[in-house]
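Pasting as-is:
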Amino acid sequence: MVEERVSELKVSREEFEKLKIAVEKNTEAIEKLSSAINELAEAQKRTEERINELAEAQKRTEERINELAEAQKRTEERINELAEAQKRTDQNVATLAKRMESLAVEVGRLSETIGFSLEDLGRELLPSRLRELGVAIEGLERRHFVVDGEEIEVNLYGEGLCSGRRILVLGEAKSRIYSNDVERFNTQA
């Protein structure tokens, strides 16, 4: 019986060679597989490093976005402050404009008052001065004339005689006088 078993266990040389070749092929395949696994492990390691780098970049990006959001918030607050300041400025300008209008009215009234005062003074003093110059005149008054369809006011108007000739006296009373005022009045006269 033992012999039977031994004979069963005997492997032929040919079978042994086949088995040897199969084992060598398996060994080569295992080595290739091991090499491929090592390459995959290295690739996995590089991938993980890259993922970590991307995660860090993402973290920095999120921090920068948060900084930008804060800057945007500050900008919006500043814009709101500027809008409020502009609103106050507009109100101040409107108030100033109203005051300027009021001041213009007051200055106009003052000019009229001064002008009327100067006219009154001219009406009182000018006739005696004209008499000294040889012009006889009864009095001076304010008159309005229409010249070329336009109404013109003359502050001091009077008719008189000078050396026997009839003359007209025309005068303008101004608190300040400029050469163009004189030219304009002369043209109108």
